[in-house]
Design brief:
Layout: E1 6-13, H1 19-29, H2 47-52, E2 59-65, E3 68-74, H3 82-90, E4 94-100, H4 107-118, E5 122-128, H5 137-148, E6 156-157, H6 166-176, E7 189-198, E8 202-211, E9 214-215, E10 219-222, E11 228-230, E12 233-237, E13 241-244, E14 246-247, E15 252-256, E16 270-273, E17 292-298, H7 304-317, E18 322-328, E19 332-339, H8 342-355, E20 360-362, E21 369-373, E22 378-381, E23 393-408, H9 412-421, E24 425-432, E25 435-443, H10 444-448, H11 451-458, E26 464-475, E27 477-484, E28 487-488, E29 494-497, H12 498-515, E30 523-529, E31 532-539, H13 555-575
Parallel strand pairs: 1-3, 1-4, 4-5, 5-6
Antiparallel strand pairs: 2-3, 7-8, 7-16, 8-15, 9-14, 10-11, 10-16, 12-13, 12-15, 17-19, 17-20, 18-19, 21-22, 21-23, 23-25, 23-26, 24-25, 27-28, 27-29, 27-30, 30-31
């Protein structure tokens, strides 16, 4: 096809601002999908995506409209998948910025706009949900003009639900978005902006051609990983796979390979021909590292192999998923899994429970720490229980996050108080119309627990939050251990700043007292730093009335039975085991509730 007749674009927005619905209307108007096959959120194929109303996996689709080939990429809207969004932005020349007419600009909208501006994309601002009674189009228009510096005439007001003015968006794509840019020379270069594993065909790559052509059955090489394979099939998506003989320059399409796992062809990698390889890869590739870790343990140890097999299957299609075996004296065998963020963790947990019918205990999520030993050796630990003896530790560095909160002005005080309470540092406050943008830095571990819940409750749900990983800082960190009946429970150990350790110890012991059932003997719940106990709660014993079977009022007989019970309790206290319920392992997720 003539390259001047191709337009590549994506839709970026905050969660729930209607980008998947807008994509549905475009597919209808362009006749890409027949009316009888149409369903809401057509490009969201996963059951979880439909249920939660969010896009998890990005999806490309090719539409024909007025003689032009329009290639759309529907991107995820959550911060956990920002790297995938940045790669899909590199694959296009234009971006439709969707803003909800009732909510205005949110934190993730801002983050995605910055990503789009970095890639020098043509941005088409669209205000969605104008049909709702609560919509405030003038206010949201002013916010967009303030952000992008555009005229009001450039903003398209639509209702993706009813289809009102959606055809104007398609016309704007043809008029405003430039034709695809190509790399100099005739070398074959294709950017992988997504990949997934098909049980029957192997790894399928979604690519954008930046130079040269890629014929079917050609030998291909992934430049970053060095993997070599054959392009068994190439073609475009509309939205089903439509095979072609060749992928031409500027096109967006798919390549079916023989590869057995997505880690062999990662997002951001460059595909080239093995016979005539490109000399230089496309820019922007990085190896995505997880920074949230949690222990996943099956309720029954019989399911350990099933859990491992299930994770192997999921990791074939998710190259960011990393895991290693973990053994806990209390929970038995399990796996420590690394995630891109809390939403990523939530999705994997739900998929394991639903698709593989597993009953799981998930421990408190933590982040990774860089430990410098007195010998000069550096360790990367992912769990507090892995921390070596403190006498061998020179310093511990923890990850810090750069955060951005958008909020109505009246909540600034409450948010600053929350940030300071999380050991955060407020960097800057700027204003977009009636709302403030607060930039801050804070320890990642403090944002993982209940920061988002507290933010929503202190701002009546009006604030939105976006973050990215900053650097690592050396801090005065300690390991807080939890002892139940004198026995240390590794799965409950947590890393904390020394100034916060006492408060965390008190909170954990109080919470455990609520969740652990009472035993026939007194149970001590303690928090400790090394050998020093910093907090204690006592779980009282059940008192069974052993004198109830005596029908006489003989005091000696009653005293004898009570004394026997007392000796029995003392023996139980020495040898008795406390059964810890699964809720006890997530007490830190709701510290302040």
């Amino acid at each position: 096809m003539n390259i001047d007749k191709i337009r590549n674009f994506c839709i970026i927005a905050h969660i729930d601002h209607g980008k998947s619905t807008l994509a549905d209307r475009m597919l209808e108007i362009t006749g890409t999908v027949a009316k009888r096959e149409m369903k809401s959120q057509l490009l969201d194929s996963m059951e979880l995506e439909r249920e939660k109303g969010i896009t998890i996996k990005l999806t490309p689709v090719c539409m024909q409209y007025k003689g032009y080939s329009l290639n759309l990429i529907d991107t995820p809207g959550h911060v956990d998948f920002s790297y995938e969004v940045s790669r899909s932005l590199q694959a296009v020349e234009g971006a439709i910025l969707v803003v909800d007419a009732t909510q205005g600009i949110q934190a993730q909208t801002l983050a995605n706009v910055y990503l789009a501006l970095e890639q020098d994309l043509t941005i088409i601002p669209v205000i969605n949900k104008i049909d709702l009674p609560a919509s405030d189009v003038p206010r949201v228009s002013a916010e967009i003009m303030n952000l992008l510096g555009c005229d009001e005439s450039e903003i398209i007001k639509v209702s993706a639900k009813t289809g009102e003015h959606v055809d104007e968006v398609l016309d704007a794509i043809i008029d405003r978005v430039p034709a695809p840019k190509l790399e100099e020379g005739n070398e074959t270069k294709a950017l992988i902006f997504d990949s997934y594993f098909d049980d029957y065909r192997g790894v399928v790559l979604y690519v954008r051609m930046f130079g040269g052509s890629l014929p079917k059955n050609s030998n291909i090489t992934m430049m970053a990983t060095g993997s070599k394979d054959i392009a068994l099939e190439v073609g475009i998506l509309n939205p089903k796979m439509s095979p072609r003989q060749t992928l031409e320059p500027g096109e967006i399409g798919y390549i079916v390979t023989n590869l057995k796992a997505t880690r062999e062809a990662k997002v951001g990698d460059t595909v080239t021909l093995t016979k005539n390889p490109a000399t230089k890869a496309l820019p922007g590739y990085k190896n995505v590292r997880p920074f949230v870790y949690a222990g996943f343990f099956p309720v029954s140890n019989d399911q350990y192999k099933d859990l491992k097999d299930a994770l192997e299957k999921l990791s074939l299609a998710d190259s960011a998923l990393q895991y290693e075996p973990e053994n806990s004296p209390v929970l038995g065998f399990g796996l420590r899994i690394g995630f891109l963020g809390l939403l990523h963790m939530d999705i994997i947990r739900e998929r394991l429970e639903r698709e593989f019918k597993l009953d799981l205990i998930v421990t408190n999520p933590s982040t990774d720490y860089h430990v410098l030993l007195t010998s000069g050796e550096e360790l990367d630990i992912r769990s507090a229980s892995d921390l070596p003896d403190v006498t061998f530790v020179e310093e511990i560095r923890e990850p810090w996050a750069k955060g951005e909160i958008i909020t109505p002005k009246e909540y600034i005080g409450a948010i600053l108080e929350l940030i300071i309470g999380k050991r955060g540092i407020q960097k800057n406050i700027s204003y977009i119309d009636t709302r403030a943008v607060i930039d801050f830095e804070a320890p990642m571990a403090n944002l993982l627990t209940d920061f988002y819940d507290q933010l929503k409750s202190s701002t009546s749900g009006y604030a939105s939050f976006n973050y990215e990983l900053g650097g690592y800082k050396a801090e005065d960190l300690v390991r807080v251990d939890v002892l139940v009946a004198g026995e240390k429970i590794d799965a409950l150990s947590v890393m904390a700043h020394r100034s916060e350790a006492d408060a965390i110890g008190r909170t954990v012991t109080k919470k455990l007292k609520e969740v652990i059932p009472r035993q026939n003997f007194e149970v001590a719940l303690q928090a400790a730093i090394g050998a020093r106990i910093i907090a204690r709660e006592t779980l009282g014993a059940y008192r069974k009335d052993v004198t109830v079977k005596i029908h006489t009022g003989d005091r000696d007989r009653k005293a004898k039975l009570t004394e026997k019970q007392k000796r029995g309790k003392a023996r139980m206290k020495r040898f008795g085991k406390v059964d810890i319920p699964s809720e006890a392992f997530t007490v830190l997720l709701k510290r302040d509730s």
